[in-house]
Amino acid sequence: MAMKQLAESxxxxxxxxxxxxxxxxxxxxxADEWLIVMVRDAIAAGRTWVAVGESLxxxxxxxxxxxxxxxxxxxxxxxxxxx
Length: 83
Fold this sequence. Notes:
4 helices
């Protein structure tokens, strides 16, 4: 069901394995982007890296190492666009 909805939203035909791969890749990329936003929002709301790490099933260090640079890069990009 989800694959069908994703295919329709991307105007891609199901039934071709390479299209399925592209759709899942796109879905993964979208989920990764949303995950950055959710982690950023959690930290901005006062949650700790310990709590974020627990939610992700990793240590606070692993969560911080993965997401802090991405969050900072997005903030810098937003600042660059604003100026």
